[in-house]
From TrEMBL, chains A, B:
Similarity annotation: Belongs to the PurS family.
Protein name in UniProt: Phosphoribosylformylglycinamidine synthase subunit PurS
Subcellular location: Cytoplasm
First-tier enzyme category under EC: ligase
Keywords tagged on the record: ATP-binding, Cytoplasm, Ligase, Nucleotide-binding, Purine biosynthesis
Assembly, per entry: Part of the FGAM synthase complex composed of 1 PurL, 1 PurQ and 2 PurS subunits.
The encoding gene: purS
Presence of the UniProt keyword Transferase in the record: no
Upper classification of the organism: Bacteria, Pseudomonadati, Pseudomonadota, Alphaproteobacteria, Rhodobacterales
GO term, biological process aspect, one: 'de novo' IMP biosynthetic process
A cellular-component GO term for this protein: cytoplasm
Length: 79, 79
């Protein structure tokens, strides 16, 4: 079973990396970019077979290691 | 218009960062993780209004700056 975790900075948290990308894109002539936010994507191969149990386990991974929940939000897709 | 770019290492390219995450998860007791791949997620706010033109523009951004197409693959969602 595969899980895909998306981790982004919470709204309102400054994203200097995204801002650097926006600036670089502007320098390359992409002037119609109003904003950029950068996040992380983590794909997990799980041996679990129950989707609900897998989602709960991945949520524990996010809370414990993958995301900094003070400033980041995460979402989980199970496939 | 929003665009979401997903950038992952190509299959077959070693992902030491993903492997480090897998190892750390194992150390925290998450033993049922068979593999981890880490990628990037970039959300773009575009002033463009035509979805097809926006997709083509974002593809140019990926080829020119956002992705290293020698070792990375990207996918684009327009919303």
């Amino acid at each position: 079973m595969k899980a895909r975790v998306t981790i982004m900075l919470k709204d309102g948290v400054l994203d200097p990396q995204g801002e650097a990308i926006r600036h670089a894109l502007g320098g390359l002539g992409h002037k119609d970019v109003a904003g950029v936010r950068q996040g992380k994507l983590i794909e997990l191969d799980l041996t679990a077979t129950d989707p609900e149990a897998a989602r709960a386990e991945v949520a524990r991974m996010c809370e414990g290691l993958l995301a900094n929940t003070v400033i980041e939000k995460y979402s989980i897709e199970i496939a």
